[in-house]
């Protein structure tokens, strides 16, 4: 019989422990927020450095997701899991404008013609891209680099038959680097990633376009204030210094 009071005391102690554990857990300080940032692949190197700097200085963890602007926007439409979206042009944001807060342009670049090392086809400018037999690759018309490239070609009235259409500037560059294409229109800043594996034929300023990278916080972010602060920081002097070092022009 003496065992029953002991069992009752143990049961009461266990119940009290169950009540106390959640209270203790709730009293623990919350860790730093983690922001998921959707980033175009053409910003990979620059943004990796930006994220490391911000984590060190602001104590906010950054989880970048790199892909094409088209893929990032489609993912955001399906499930708003990001806290911040960066895209390769403003047009890419139109379908998700209602999901985003205030937009800021954080960087700019321009276009160039990627060619094989040594330029064996002797390409001198955009008009040469209409040459018969030349394998030219462009970005798809639904992605920023494709829209920008077609704008240049339309302005110069250059008809181009494409060998393929790719999802991003880096995908176009890969086709040239691997010899699957003779030429392609890519971002100037992406040529840094090519090294000696590709050459470049400049597009003059009067034929070129200004490529803009807009960034915006996602309204349904779990950390709206942190997301807004990060987007604001992307236009700060330290962030601009990193972007400039990676070859981007500044707003």
UniProtKB/TrEMBL annotation:
The keyword Glycoprotein does not apply. Residues 1-27 form the signal peptide. It holds the Pfam family SBP_bac_11. GO terms for molecular function: metal ion binding; molybdate ion binding. Molybdate binds at residues 42, 69, 187. It comes from the Bacteria. SUPFAM superfamilies: Periplasmic binding protein-like II (SSF53850). InterPro entries: ModA (IPR005950), ModA/WtpA (IPR050682). Keywords: Metal-binding, Molybdenum, Signal. Coiled coil: none annotated. GO terms for biological process: molybdate ion transport. Belongs to the bacterial solute-binding protein ModA family. This is Molybdate transport system substrate-binding protein. It comes from Thermomonospora cellulosilytica.
